[in-house]
Design brief:
Layout: H1 17-27, E1 31-33, E2 40-42, H2 44-63, E3 67-68, E4 74-76, H3 77-81, H4 84-90, E5 95-104, E6 110-122, H5 127-137, E7 146-155, E8 169-179, H6 182-203, E9 209-212, E10 224-231, E11 237-247, H7 249-254, E12 257-259, E13 265-267, E14 269-276, H8 278-287, E15 304-308, H9 313-331, E16 334-335, E17 338-339, E18 342-344, H10 351-361, E19 365-369, H11 371-376, E20 378-383, E21 391-395, H12 396-424, E22 426-428, H13 432-441, E23 445-449, H14 458-463, E24 466-471, E25 476-480, E26 487-495
Parallel strand pairs: 3-7, 15-18, 15-19, 22-23
Antiparallel strand pairs: 1-2, 4-6, 5-6, 7-8, 8-14, 9-10, 9-24, 10-11, 11-14, 12-13, 16-17, 19-20, 20-21, 23-26, 24-26, 25-26
Helix pairs in contact: 2-6
């Protein structure tokens, strides 16, 4: 990048990455801060991306036998108290409802009244309230497995918030399943981890590393937690989805029992798994550039925007007729099991200004059509995965024929580019000194030998680095933990993280 380069987003990623992130969200009209502290308003363009994520993930869940249900927003405090590790893990993030009405104050204004006998917690997650229902539904091994997901909002009282990445209220899905055996529950946990990995790779074009969490990073109350970890363009990791094997901890807390085939009553085995609107933050930071948002076609609310350019009303009519016919030919086709989405931007403003708005919003393909293109039956095409200045002329018939191929090429290109960056920023580190130097001066993924005795090591706290996961596909090799010198069987993944 030279000093003379000009970009749509200021500051650039190199100049101030956190502010660049906020400006991309603003320029692409994804979301804004709410008047409620720590909460966000997801605007139509941003919510359309979430709807596409939801639609695709929901289909993947149903293909694996899951169905949707809905459970209450409010959880009795006593429910959380049943599982000690769970309440300990979420206590500082809970929002508590203590009253059920308002009344007028003397001198004006309102005040809470009608104190509740038992406070309610606004759900930070739903294991306990769902477990209460499951304890009524599950009676026999014939009722199992119980495979349910819900799409909902949750609240976690965050001190430092950032749009999509960490907000007080956010949207997510949470799966909660019940099984007759430990083996079936573990299989479910890993199956859903694979679903998240496939979604990240195939739909988000975001490469991830899947693995098990170390004991200090597990979900509160879980026996094992697994995650997919992605590397953002500033070298920090993003936990993009988690899947938890809960053992019998929550079934015992919620009294989920069943009669097995031998007629003996036993506690069930449970799992939970989830992904949230944090994925949109990951999407932004994986692909976007200094000109704004970059969207993989499989998640774009609009695949193709057509920008008519004309100098007179007579010319306008001819060009718009051409554009409408082109749009009809495009939307008649399918991409990623849904219709191709195409819009015509005929607003009363300069073509260049309109083009830049769509560049900043990440629309995969821009077509500019004027008198020259009309006479030649051609299109002036720009792709969002390329420099905005790199536009090409393509015949109308050829474009219509190749539209799905072009979208696929953009999707693959974005994944390969992100994977190349990720792979170039993974380093094997063999000593504590090298580890400290790496994270003082740089960021990225580090693969180092580790032993559980290193939990809480002062170097990790000082560098603000955490163990991200023990890679499932990682190479097994004997070594010595770089923090304690104790035996290690495998390198694990470290990074600074969101």
């Amino acid at each position: 990048m030279s000093k003379n380069d000009k970009f749509a987003i200021s500051p650039t990623r190199q100049e101030n990455y956190p502010e660049w992130y906020q400006q991309v969200i603003k320029a692409s009209d994804l979301a804004e801060n709410s008047d409620v502290r720590g909460c966000m308003v997801i605007k139509p363009w941003g919510f359309s991306i979430w709807e596409n994520m939801q639609r695709i993930l929901d289909g993947m869940f149903k293909e694996t036998g899951h169905v949707n249900a809905y459970f209450p927003l409010l959880i009795p405090l006593s429910f959380l108290e049943k599982e000690a590790e769970h309440v300990k893990g979420f206590a500082k993030e809970c929002a508590v409802v203590t009253h059920h009405r308002l009344e007028a104050k003397e001198g004006g204004g309102l005040q809470p009244a009608g104190k509740l006998e038992e406070p309610f917690i606004i759900r930070p997650t739903s294991e306990t309230i769902i477990g209460s229902s499951y304890s009524k539904w599950v009676k026999s091994y014939r009722d199992l497995p119980l495979l349910i997901n819900q799409w909902a909002n949750v609240m976690r009282w965050e001190m430092r918030t950032r749009l999509f990445l960490r907000t007080t209220e956010f949207l997510w899905q949470e799966g909660h399943t019940v099984h007759a055996t430990k083996e079936e529950a573990i299989e479910e946990t890993l199956r859903m981890l694979d679903v998240y990995e496939k979604f990240a790779h195939d739909t988000m074009a975001m490469p991830v590393i899947k693995g098990a969490k170390t004991s200090d990073e597990r979900f509160p109350g879980a026996v094992d937690t697994y995650s997919i970890e992605a590397l953002m363009q500033d070298g920090k990791a993003l936990q993009a989805g988690t899947s938890h094997f809960l053992g019998r901890n929550f079934s015992k807390a919620s009294n989920i029992k069943f009669l097995n085939k031998e007629g003996v009553e036993e506690f069930a085995w449970t799992t939970s798994w989830g992904a949230s609107t944090r994925l949109i933050g990951g999407l932004i930071m994986t692909h976007s550039d200094d000109n704004g948002l970059v969207l993989p076609p499989k998640l774009a609310p609009c695949h193709v925007v057509i920008i008519p350019i004309y100098k007179s009303d007579a010319e306008r009519g001819e060009i718009l007729s051409f554009c409408n016919a082109l749009k009809e030919a495009l939307v008649a086709q399918k991409y990623n099991d849904a219709k191709i989405i195409c819009s015509i931007d005929d607003r009363d403003m300069r073509g260049g200004e309109k083009a830049w708005q769509h560049i900043k919003k990440g629309v995969p393909i821009r077509l500019e059509i004027g008198a020259r293109e009309l006479s030649a039956n051609s299109l002036f095409m720009g792709q969002r995965d390329k420099d905005p200045r790199d536009k090409v002329v393509i015949g109308r018939v050829e474009f219509v024929k190749k539209i799905t191929q072009i979208l696929d090429e953009i999707q693959v290109n974005l994944f390969n580019r992100a994977r190349k960056y990720r792979d170039e920023n993974i380093k094997k580190i063999n000593s504590l000194k090298e580890f400290e130097e790496y994270f003082r001066e740089d960021s990225g993924f580090a693969l180092s030998h580790w032993n559980e005795a290193a939990i809480g090591h002062e170097a990790l706290a000082k560098l603000k680095v955490t163990p991200r996961c023990i890679p499932i596909d990682g190479e097994r090799e004997d070594g010595k933990c770089i923090f304690t010198g104790k035996d290690s069987k495998q390198r694990i993944l470290f990074a600074k993280a969101y």
